[in-house]
Specification:
This protein is mainly α and 345 residues long. 75% of the residues lie in helices and 2% in strands. It has one domain: ABC transporter involved in vitamin B12 uptake, BtuC (Orthogonal Bundle), CATH 1.10.3470. The chain contains 16 helices and 2 strands. Helix 1 crosses helix 12, helix 3 crosses helix 6 and helix 13 (294-314) runs antiparallel to helix 14 (319-325). The longest helix is centred in the N-terminal third of the chain and has 32 residues, at 3-34. It is globular, with a radius of gyration of 21 Å.
Length: 345
């Protein structure tokens, strides 16, 4: 291996690591706020990329039907709960988000001809269809079990993952899709060609991480999420709705996943189940951070990306094994250094 090959592998590792960092941050956020190990995070990656590809192919994306179906289901539940509890004043907001919003989105898709739109508007519309699925999934699958154990929530996550993968196959088929690059520019750096799409991925990931930092440090909602992550009971005593915190965390996770899929779609062919492997690598990075530390999870994601890139050069047949094996020493180290409840007793 010479320096040029090492630089190429390092570039690929950093690009992959930037995406894994976003997914790791989303997984840490969801787990900290709701105690849910969000295995379906990867499905939002695939849905975001394939929805954009459907627009560019002149097709109606299946995620529109999923948005309409989940919206009707959530609206029915909210009507039943509000009627039983006598809180009919909350129906306007619930019906607006779950019935009116999907109906407006459907009207735009059918009447607006998104296939002829500029790329930026297509990306915005793809996000508008995919991101609301996050809080809808939380309302249907996780909110009724908010007080359940982590194991029960993990089993529910597996079920949701399998359901979304099956729906992805139904909506988009088994063939993969790739979208045009955001930029055709390219640059030479130390004899290595850096494409404009690479800069888009790294730059967008960096900007999003900074925006998330400002959101958690400066905004009221961000501070409410941090309070819920630190102490759910204390947050409830201070008047913070843990239900709204859960919905917001899933909204952010869906937005991060969908945007990540849109960023990688010009680089690699995305299939209906591509998000699962990508999400697992983000999960490895989140485990490195102990499902608690955002900076360590981001650093772990870069490490995962570099390890994957260099493993593909030295032992391409075992690169996935090498990446996922990294989780074993991390778990052993945390098991040895963490105080256990039975030790206190």
């Amino acid at each position: 291996m010479d320096l040029q090959i090492a630089l190429l592998l390092g570039q690929d590792g950093i690009v992959n690591g930037a995406i894994y960092a976003l997914l790791a941050l989303a997984l840490v956020l969801v787990f900290a706020v709701t105690r849910v190990i969000f295995i379906p995070q990867g499905e939002f990656v695939a849905f975001g990329a394939l929805t954009l590809a459907s627009f560019q192919a002149g097709k109606v994306p299946g995620t529109l039907w999923l948005l309409l179906g989940l919206g009707v289901a959530v609206a029915a539940i909210e009507v039943a709960v509000a009627t039983r509890n006598g809180a009919l004043h909350r129906l306007a907001s619930a019906l607006g988000w779950n019935l009116v919003y999907p109906a407006v989105a459907a009207g735009i898709v059918f009447l607006g001809d998104p296939g002829s739109w500029p790329l930026g508007l297509q990306v915005a519309l793809a996000l508008a269809l995919v991101v609301p699925l996050g809080p809808m999934v939380y309302r249907l699958a996780y909110q009724p079990l908010a007080s359940a154990s982590v194991l029960v929530l993990l089993i529910v996550s597996v079920a949701v993952h399998l359901t979304l993968v099956g729906l992805g196959l139904l909506f988009f088929g088994a063939e993969g899709s790739r979208t045009p690059a955001f930029s055709d520019a390219s640059f030479e750096w130390w004899g290595v060609t850096v494409t404009g799409q690479t800069l888009w991925v790294v730059g967008a990931s960096g900007v999003l991480i900074v925006v998330l930092y400002i959101f958690f440090e400066r905004s009221l909602w961000g501070k409410a999420l941090r309070a819920t992550a630190i102490n759910r009971v204390g947050a409830q005593l201070m008047g913070i709705s843990t239900t709204q915190a859960g919905k917001l965390s899933f909204l952010l996770a869906a937005a991060i996943g969908a945007l990540s899929g849109i960023l990688i779609a010009p680089i690699t062919t995305v299939y209906y189940d591509t998000g699962f492997i990508v999400g697992l690598k983000g999960f490895v990075a989140a485990i490195v951070g102990g499902l608690a530390s955002y900076p360590v999870a981001a650093a772990g994601a870069i490490l995962v990306g570099l390890l994957e890139s260099f493993s593909s050069f030295w032992a391409s047949a075992f690169k996935e094994v090498i990446v996922f094996t990294m989780i074993i020493p991390v778990l052993v180290w945390r098991s040895v250094t963490t105080r256990h409840v039975e030790e206190d007793e």
